[in-house]
């Protein structure tokens, strides 16, 4: 596979829903009254999963792009303090920030000036391709959980 095809595939994969539900579909149309509810038997609310997705993706983007990157504390810096969003605006801002960071990751993936396999200068020898695959894997896992939460709340399609 040529590098151009791989770059295009990685860039598109960050937002696709070919093999599973997309992030955009998973967050679309969830009633505000259900966003902070932890369904019986499940450990997280939709808000907790949304914020975790956003915070983790934001951190991985910073790891790939910021020379002044500082490692976050696990788990405190990766999960919201409350199962409930502070407001409808907070939910909307989290969704928008996730989408903006995803777009930036897509641009990184597509940028031919960046070597996909070269170690990033800010980390432990990890490459951009490793971090992009990590973002993809992490998002697929937690978007699946988000759909499960919605199903348990009878708020899925």
Q: Key terms for this structure?
A:
157 residues; mainly alpha; Four Helix Bundle (Hemerythrin (Met), subunit A); 5 helices
Describe this structure in words.
- This protein has five helices and no strands.
- With about 160 residues, the protein is mostly helical.
- The protein has one domain: Four Helix Bundle (Hemerythrin (Met), subunit A) (Up-down Bundle), CATH 1.20.120.
- The termini are far apart.
Output the radius of gyration.
Answer: 16 Å
- Low-pLDDT stretches are none
Q: What best-fitting shape do the alpha-carbon axes yield?
A: globular
Q: How many domains is the backbone divided into? A: 1
First-residue to last-residue Cα separation: 37 Å
Largest sheet: none
Quote the average pLDDT. 93
- Note the run of SSEs as H and E: HHHHH
Summarize the structure.
The protein is an all-alpha fold and 157 residues long. The protein contains 5 helices and no strands. It has helices at residues 3-13, 23-27, 46-65, 88-110, 128-152.
Task: Please render the helix and strand layout as text.
Blueprint: H1 3-13, H2 23-27, H3 46-65, H4 88-110, H5 128-152
Helix pairs in contact: 1-4, 3-4, 3-5
């Amino acid at each position: 596979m040529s590098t151009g095809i791989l770059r295009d595939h990685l860039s598109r994969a960050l937002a696709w829903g070919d093999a599973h539900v997309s992030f955009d579909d998973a967050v679309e149309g969830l009633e505000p009254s259900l966003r902070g509810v932890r369904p019986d038997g499940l450990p997280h609310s939709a808000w907790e999963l949304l914020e975790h997705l956003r915070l983790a993706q934001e951190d991985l983007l910073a790891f790939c792009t910021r020379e002044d990157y500082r490692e976050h504390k696990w788990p405190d810096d990766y999960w919201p303090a409350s199962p409930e969003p502070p407001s409808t605006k907070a939910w909307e801002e989290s969704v928008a920030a996730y989408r903006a960071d995803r777009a930036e990751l897509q641009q990184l993936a597509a940028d031919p000036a960046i070597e996909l396999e070269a170690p990033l200068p800010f980390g432990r020898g990890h490459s951009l391709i490793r971090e992009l695959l990590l973002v993809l894997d992490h998002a697929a896992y937690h978007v699946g959980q988000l759909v499960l939460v919605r199903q348990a709340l009878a708020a899925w399609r």
